[in-house]
Amino acid sequence: MRRKVDLPSKICPVCQRPFAWRKKWERDWENVKFCSERCRRAPAKPEGGA
Questions:
Q1: Which segments of 1-50 are extended strands (E)?
Q2: What is the mean pLDDT of residues 30-37?
Q3: Which of 12, 15, 29, 44 fits 35 for a cystine, CB–CB 3.0-4.6 Å?
Q4: Mean pLDDT in residue range 5-27
């Protein structure tokens, strides 16, 4: 069995938090961009701030 720290991870572009590989993303990991449905539905935040 693999430990969670050994799994690949990515940074969510909406919340800027890391998320780890999940079994349900096994075949589509290259296309996964968001950590959750909530982040996927959220509008993109402007990077410039102000």
A1: 9-11, 18-20
A2: 92
A3: 12
A4: 90
The CA distance from 48 to 50, in Å, is 7
The pTM of the full predicted model, rounded to 2 decimals, is 0.69
Token code pair at residue 48 = 């410039």
Rounded distance, CA 17 to CA 12, Å? 6
- pLDDT tens-place string over residues 1-12: 768 777 889 999
18 Cβ neighbours under 8 A, 6+ residues apart: 9, 10, 11, 12
Q: In the beta sheet, which residues pair with residue 19?
A: 10
Q: What does the block give as tokens for 33? A: 């961009």
Give the torsion through C-alpha atoms of 42, 30, 5, 20, to 10 deg.
20
